[in-house]
Write a structure and sequence with these properties.
Layout lengths: L5 H75 L11
Length: 91
């Protein structure tokens, strides 16, 4: 694999993000056109459960971030308690 420049990576991410904004409405419109408005109600009910699951997942991620950011300063105090040179360097 060749080395990628930051510009090419950022450009690709920008294009992916732009395409993602059009993907969900396009799939929704195609689904509505294929199954019709009568069957679309049951699909939207399933989507409600999907959204609830994503909310729970995001909340768990934020809890994990808050916990790890709370633990990080305390590890600094643990390292500060050792005299300089008492911990062997990693090779």
């Amino acid at each position: 694999m060749r080395n990628l420049s930051a510009v090419s990576v950022y450009s690709a991410q920008f294009l992916i993000g732009g395409a993602g904004t059009f993907l969900a409405p396009t799939v929704t419109a195609m689904t509505l056109g294929i199954v019709g408005a009568g069957a679309f109600d049951s699909i939207s009910e399933n989507q409600a459960f999907n959204s609830a699951g994503k909310c729970i997942y995001c909340s768990a991620g934020r809890l994990l971030f808050a916990t790890s950011s709370g633990i990080a300063p305390s590890s600094r105090f643990g390292v500060a308690g050792h005299p300089r040179g008492s911990v062997p360097p990693c090779h």
